[in-house]
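Design request, tokens follow.
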């Protein structure tokens, strides 16, 4: 079984994942374009066993999910049962709940996240936090990101998003190196410039420094490179294919 490689973040294709039939058709297309793994996010209503059957039928690994923090706190047994069906070892949240977006809030959330991460570790799973750019606002000289991870146990991992780190005014390479040993899955999307406006772009089609990002990721122990593009300026399937092709050219392979 693969233990490292490139995954398609299905949130990119959320408009094509609204029904069970859509999900089956879309996952078949994802596999056909060359992806062997996916992140489960943005997937419409479907029975957990039905989703497991589709994944296994296509030979796709589910490497991580995005779930609500509420479910992690209040519905953990059912959540873990679903992940066992899918064979998915990693669980993440897509962002910080709004009520914690303050200096004290980051510290308070870090304690709650630590409790969740340790419970997941005991069950054989990992917990990761996915960032946007607001985490890089400073409070008395420290970013929300720094407050969060300084107050959390090492088992709280970072599902670092390269675009959003850059959007927040930070350096993705620096932040990857800062989190060495605490990134299992990284989100890859590029940042371009169109008519003077920042835009999300396919990996390798924008201005982020991919050789340096990928080298830092390897040094930091990243296992999975999840391609995500929240907003595509072309067909989202084409965007995922371009990113995969460019990553292969940069030497990222499934192993």
């Amino acid at each position: 079984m693969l233990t490292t490689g490139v995954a398609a973040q299905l949130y990119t294709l959320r408009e094509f994942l609204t029904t069970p039939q859509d999900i089956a058709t879309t996952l078949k297309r994802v596999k056909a374009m060359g992806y062997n793994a996916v992140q489960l996010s943005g997937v419409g209503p479907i029975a957990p066993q039905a989703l497991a059957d589709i994944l296994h039928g296509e030979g796709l690994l589910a490497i991580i999910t995005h779930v609500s923090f509420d479910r992690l706190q209040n519905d953990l047994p059912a959540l873990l049962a679903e992940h066992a069906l899918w064979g998915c070892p990693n669980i993440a949240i897509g962002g910080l709940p709004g009520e914690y977006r303050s200096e004290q809030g980051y510290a308070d959330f870090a304690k709650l996240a630590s409790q969740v991460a340790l419970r997941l570790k005991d069950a054989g799973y990992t917990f990761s936090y996915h960032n946007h750019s607001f985490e890089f606002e400073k409070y008395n000289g420290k970013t929300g990101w720094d407050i969060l991870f300084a107050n959390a146990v090492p088992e709280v991992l970072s599902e670092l998003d390269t675009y959003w780190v850059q959007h927040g005014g930070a350096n993705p390479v620096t932040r990857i190196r800062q989190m060495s040993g605490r990134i299992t899955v990284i989100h890859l999307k590029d940042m371009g410039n169109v008519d003077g406006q920042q835009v999300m772009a396919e990996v390798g089609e924008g201005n982020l420094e991919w050789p340096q990002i990928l080298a830092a990721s390897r040094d930091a122990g990243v296992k999975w490179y999840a391609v995500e593009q929240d907003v595509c300026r072309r067909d989202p399937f084409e965007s995922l294919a371009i990113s995969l092709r460019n990553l292969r050219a940069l030497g990222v392979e499934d192993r």
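Comment from the thread starter after seeing the answer: thanks! Residues 28 and 225 are 20 Å apart (CA to CA).
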